[in-house]
Structures are given as structure tokens and as C-alpha cells.
Write a structure and sequence with these properties.
Shape: globular
Strand content: 15-25%
Number of helices: 6
Largest sheet: 5 strands, antiparallel
Strand order of the largest sheet: 1-6-7-4-3
Structural class: alpha+beta
CATH class: Alpha Beta
Order of helices and strands: EEHEEHHEHEEHH
Length: 149
Amino acid sequence: MEKGGDEMLTGTYSHSLDSKGRLIIPARFRKELGDGFVITKNMDHCLSIYPKSEWEALTEKLNGLPLISSEAARKINRLIFGNSVEPEVDRQGRILIPADLRKHANLTKDVTLVGAYRLIEIWDTDTWNDYNEHLDMSDISYNLNGIDL
């Protein structure tokens, strides 16, 4: 698989997990993810898929945290790195999501993949629908400290 282009990871796609916990990654996302990617837990009870370049950038940021003096830094390192996998994509465009990651995001059958610019989030569809229904642009922009959207 060749490296993807410079497009953003955008859009929302609905898929189902099969009985083995495999998920089809949409062709457009596979193209943008390129030769490899990493899946890990997200703090919003979903999963994050990072293209290699974004994973490396995140690794650099986390590497700069003061692990000796900061319990929070140690916790975030454990959460992110201790729960990360580099899945293989099969010929049908599927990846296996390990059971512990499926449990974290409550993934059982119906899932929604959400392009979030630099990464992809994997949500339980009901959880995503509830979360998305309650998103309010005015509340979000206010909490971004003056950033105009």
C-alpha cells in the first residue's frame, strides 16, 4: 500500500464489526493512512487511529513530558502507549480490533468511523449518535478561548 496524499481525514462512515472483531476501514481512509497506522484508546471512550506521521508527532510530544515528577504524564503514557496496536489490513480492507480496545469503546456490532482531521475515531454507533446530537457549536467555540470558527 502506498502512502496516502495530503488530504485531511474527514467524513463519517458506518460499518459493522464481524464476529471476530474485524472492521472494514473505508477505502478513502485506507488511502490516507498509507503504509501503516496505530490504534489506541481515546479519552472520550472511543478509539483513535493515527497515521504513522501523526503517531510520531504525538510520540515526540509525550516524550517531552516530565515522567519522573508528573503522575499525569505517566498515566497518559500508559493509556496511549500501553494500549496501542499496529494492525495489519487484510485483502478485504479489514483490521482486527483487539478485545480490550473493543471493550474500552463499547464496540459490539455497529460502529461509526469519524474523520477528525489528523486522525480517525472509532465509536460505538449509538454512543456517537448521542454524542453528536448534543454537540453545540456555540458552546464549543466559547470554550476554545476566542478562536473564531
